[in-house]
Amino acid sequence: MAKKVKKIVRREYTKTDVKELRAHSKAKTPVVKIAKQMKRSEGSLRQKAIKLGIPLGHMR
């Protein structure tokens, strides 16, 4: 039997999602924690942060 392909579900970012992302950016929360809490991928969060012009996670 063929493997089931996971369907990609895309969700728009709401105003509250953006507000929460900005708060995490200010608190320098690790991206892994934010991803689990918001149920989004790390890549999605990083891309949104770039569009908003905010840093995400800690800088090395």
Automatic annotation (TrEMBL):
It comes from the Bacteria. This is Transposase. It comes from Bradyrhizobium barranii subsp. barranii.
